[in-house]
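User: I'm putting together a teaching handout on how multi-component assemblies are represented. Below are the sequence lines for each component of a complex, exactly as they appear in our records. Could you produce the 3D structure of the whole assembly as structure tokens, so the students can see both representations side by side? Please keep the chain order the same as the input.
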Amino acid sequence: MSEELNVKTMEAFMAEGKQPEILFWVGSAGSYDDRAKKISRAFVKILNKANVEFAVLGPEESCTGDVAKRAGNEFLFQMQAMMNIEILNGYEIKRIVTCDPHSFNTLKNEYPGLGGNYDVVHHTQFIKELMDDGRLSVKGEFYKEKRITFHDPCYLGRANSVYDAPREVLKKTNANIIEMKRHKKAALCCGAGGAQMFKEPEKGDMDINVLRTKDALDTNPDIIATGCPYCNTMMTDGIKAHEKEGSVSVLDVAELIANAEGL
Amino acid sequence: MEYLPNILFAIVLIIGIGFFFKNVKKLSRNIKLGKDVDVSDNKSQRWKNMARIALGQTKMVVRPIAGLMHIIVYVGFVIINIEVLEIIIDGVLGTHRIFAPLGALYDFLIGSFEVLALLVIVAVIVFWIRRNIIKLKRFIKPEMDGWPKKDGNMILYIELVLMLLFLTMNAADFQLQQLDAAHYTKAGAFPVSQLIAPLFDGMSISNLILVERTAWWLHIIGILSFLNYLYYSKHLHILLAFPNTYYGKLTPQGKFNNVEAVTNEVKLMMDPSADPFAAPTEDAPDPEKFGASDVMDLNWVQLLNAYTCTECGRCTSECPANQTGKKLSPRKIMMDTRDRLEEVGKNMDANKGEFVEDGKQLLGDYISHEELWACTTCNACVEACPVSIDPLSIIIEMRRFLVMEQSAAPMELNNMMSNIENNGAPWPYNQMDRLNWVNE
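Assistant: Of course. Below is the structure of the complete assembly, with chains in the same order as your input.
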């Protein structure tokens, strides 16, 4: 058991008659996937460190329905969305932060059409905001001289044009940020989007994550930085496929910042 | 007899343009087979997109060589239309170089047409080399076998011939001007055709006139034929790129539409006071089909997309699934949609304007399940398209049909979806355990 995290549910805030500053939408991956849970924990450490009053829905949170929608199951998506919206609206949620670009995209773009209007930000945007406001600072020694390359998640980058926030956050670590040949708008998918995470890929010459990891390895990095739990899994598997797990690590931007601060 | 050429010209012109409009009507009827979709919003943004993307060619230059060459051919095409206008007026009125009184401006115009014609020839040769000698990967995908490959080359040949005819016509004209031939007033500057003019040295005036008239007639007949070739070719994009960029997606790329028919059903399902056993009223419309299995289930913007596609393959070459050897090619999705739509159109033509069931559809007969399930919805194809085509929206509509009408998702996805239904997560974990990560 690692050190205590300070996490409060929306229900608890409600009982105290208080509203938190933000709602942290953990997402299914962030709640259940062993690797992604570490990202959730790292982000919470940052929130705790910056004294952000945040809430989670806990057992009241349900899958956003993003994967169902991309798979073509609009029914299931809308059922999930409407259930979630009922809860979010019931708690009068205004601002949502999430570590998952898929949740980010669907909450931000697809929930409004079903009655859920929130200010939705990605955790890298929120961390940048904390830094800009002086609520969080990074000492900038831990990753000095390290080579870090950032893989743009499709649903954060191309889908929503968020390219700068994760890069600016990474720059604060004083690491060398090296761009892959295809990045930002031209970034290659990790292979997990559009519900691919949950099925075997169709037959081909190779898996998409292996190709994308090669893009990253071509920059000769120490660390591949990600901003999406799916990308993280795919790149981690890609590193194994290239037998580089000994020399290159895959870390979420939140983990990088938490580590830099010794959290 | 004096007016014979004028009359002949008028007939050729009327036939050429008449056929074109007949095909435009067919085109518009086919596009309207799609479902209606409201794209009347954000007019100013739409005009801006059209100006920037279609007129300004901003997305073409993402690939600089192809982009630059394309701009040359495009500018050449647009500007040379002034010349075509003169040819048409001359042809109808029996005049020669009717704009000649413009003087220095005319010299400049003709001069710039000639330079552009030369540049177009260079660009067309470069394009031909890329397709046939270098064999760029995106031009030799399976969907390019047969007609698409021929069509691509044919356009290059036609453009080459048209430019050569234009320069030949001018060269002969230049010679005739030097010889003070009647009717051939001294007008225009011929920086390029001057260089071919020596080929005609020593030719008699009557032979020169024969050359000039032949090139003139072939040039205008060539242009009219090309106009009518468009309908059968990927080259339709020279017209449709404009409306297509105007009607292109304005919302963030990651935003997929929420199907309204589903919203109504879901609301009913979640409404505790709704009677689940209530029989539908007599006048209730047929329940809507979810998703798309054929072209009529797509919306008209998606069908316009299909006709606009010029098969450049930038989408396919950016597609992660295609790059890793999977069957999916976003370009093929667009080509299949257009081919099926054409088939439906021909069926209607043959049956007095009514579509007669032909036992075929877009899904299965053209696009396979395997292609549809290989998509990661990453939007690379959408981003890559120089004319705002959205192949992803068609893929999603067809997945919707597969899942909601046929329950034909891959088994693993079915498991994932039943997990969401039962546990509120794609994995089989208890919803009550959602906060366990805090203490692990």
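A couple of points students might notice: The beta strands of chain A are 8-9, 22-25, 54-56, 95-98, 119-122, 147-150, 176-177, 223-226, 249-252. DSSP finds eleven helices and nine strands in chain A.
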